[in-house]
Amino acid sequence: MLVTQHPVFRRFWYPVMPLSHLRQTQGQPGNPQPFQLLGQRIVLWLTPEGTVAAVEDRCCHRTAQLSRGCVVAGCIQCPYHGWQFDATGACVKVPQLQPHERIPASYKVKAFQTQIRYDYAWVCLEPDPLLPIPDFPEAEDPRYRVIHDFYEAWQCSAFSFMENVFDNAHFSIVHTRTFGDTSNPIPAISEIRETDYGFHTYAEIPAVNNDLQKSNLGMKEDRTLRCTSGDWFMPFLHRGKIVYPNGLEAILFVAMTPIDDYTSQMAHFWIRSDREEDAPAANIIAFNRQVMDEDRVILETIPADRPLAVESEQHMLSDKPSILMRRKLMALLRESERGSLVSKG
Question: Inter-axis angle of helices 158-165 and 320-338, to 10 degrees?
């Protein structure tokens, strides 16, 4: 499935960039930052009010990249002729005009909706998003801590990554250095419940603890049981929650934002019920890096243009989440083609 060929994907919110990439440094205005979302080139910057602005990354004058310019008084200034555009995309300054001359209303660039959630700038390319940004209440709960792991581009489709998240059968084969139980290749079968936003799953998954993970979990045992619930939010966002036998809670946020048909930007962080003195964030990130590298070596070999239809591939019992994901995405595409979709936000 090539996502840029289906305009309906433009009607969802995507986390495109950490706010740390946009914030001011050493008293200087934050630099505008380019991003490509579903093939659309955009530029983002922070306004003096602390909101995020996002417009198309081409000046309406001579199509120079606005992201090569700078932020001036909350507006983005084109590096070519100095035209300035505000967060609505309207041109507010043309240095070449006489003071008495009015800026034509046609001097504008396309602007996009933005929100700030979980220290990320989110963008929706269309004015009528189908779903709201999912809630992660623990991210703002002082009883939990947030550990930002990864913000990086992968050469794989967002769909293949989401499918992998809910695939319990690959743990004992792929994750042999981290948590996979190689002695037990029979996967845990997930209970699954369809929702308006996607689906919810629950499974109790046996796992191995390597030395690093023992330290991270505060456990001495070589094996543990992960009581795991997961939510898939259409189209490419996952919320997972693992409860360990010692009571530790670990909530995973991972979204794959499509840059184009073949590349996805990962936004990945954990929300945990322990403290830094219990398990240093650096050690948790190091373990997660091992897990992600095991997945990445496989996922980047899977073609992005593989068919979405269920009958295009073979399946087994543990593939129920994947099958439901495919069916719901196929229904989404069919409804969008008929023009019958309405926003649920």
Answer: 140
Q: In whole angstroms, what is the distance from residue 230 CA to residue 238 CA?
A: 7
Tens of pLDDT, residue by residue over 278-335, are: 999 999 999 999 999 999 999 999 999 999 999 999 999 999 999 999 999 999 999 9
Q: What is the Cα–Cα distance from 269 to 283, expressed in whole angstroms?
A: 14
**Within 13 Å of residue 286, how many CA atoms lie on the same side as its CB?**
11
pLDDT over 90 (residue 109) = yes
Q: In what order do the strands lie in the sheet containing 91-93?
A: 70-72, 75-77, 84-85, 91-93
Residue 181 C-alpha from the chain's centroid: 28
Q: What is the distance in angstroms between the CA of the first residue and the CA of the last residue of the chain?
A: 25
Closest to 231 (Cα-Cα) out of 165, 297, 137: 165
**Measured between alpha carbons, how far is 91 from 84 in angstroms, rounded to an integer?**
6
Structure pTM?
0.94
With vertex at residue 16, the alpha carbon angle to CA 253 and CA 88, rounded to the nearest 5 degrees, is 135
In tens, the pLDDT along 51-87 reads 999 999 999 999 999 999 999 999 999 999 999 999 9
Neighbours of 112 (CB within 10 A): 22
